[in-house]
Amino acid sequence: QVQLVESGGGLVQAGGSLTLSCAASGLTLSSIIMGWFRQAPGQERKFVSSITWSGGSTSYAGSVKGRFTISRDNAKNTVYLQMNRLEPEDTAIYYCAARQSISVTWSWGQGIQVTVSS
Predict the structure, then answer these.
(1) Coil, helix or strand for 30?
(2) What is the per-residue pLDDT for 103?
(3) What is the pLDDT of residues 47-101, one digit of tens each?
(4) On the chain, which terminus has fewer CB atoms closer than 10 Å, C or N?
(5) How far is CA 3 from CA 6, 11, 12, 18, 67, in A?
């Protein structure tokens, strides 16, 4: 059973930084893609970033490219999202997600709130 547990959210002022963590278990990590999505109030859930566990290839949404960095720690089975130069528009619930590389179905964490004040 897939388990994804996020941590590290909170309240930060505009221009500040936060790092989200996602501890993964119940997966064959070598063949998965890990991702971060976010959902702001009244909006649909949107892609933020992803990383392939084996090769470390990364992808970013245009709105966060250059400000956010996704990384992984193989020993800790954990994925991180380093968020710099945060903007009020980054305020959302952030979800960790995982899928097998041959699948289109994501498994989800419970979500964690990030609030950026102006």
Answers:
(1) helix
(2) 87
(3) 999 999 887 899 999 999 999 999 999 889 999 999 999 999 999 999 999 998 8
(4) N
(5) 10, 25, 27, 22, 27
3-state per-residue secondary structure call for 81-113: EEECCCCHHHCEEEEEEEEECCCCCCEECCCEE
pLDDT of residue 102: 86
- HSE at residue 73, side-chain half, CA atoms within 13 A, is 8
Dihedral angle computed from the Cα positions of residues 102, 105, 109 and 114, in that order, rounded to the nearest 10 degrees: 100
108: which strand partners? 97
d(CA 6, CA 83): 14
Which region among 17-21, 88-92, 101-105, 107-111 has the lowest average model confidence (pLDDT)? Answer: 101-105
Cα(63)–Cα(48) distance, integer angstroms: 8
Tell me the C-alpha distance between 40 and 23, whole Å: 23
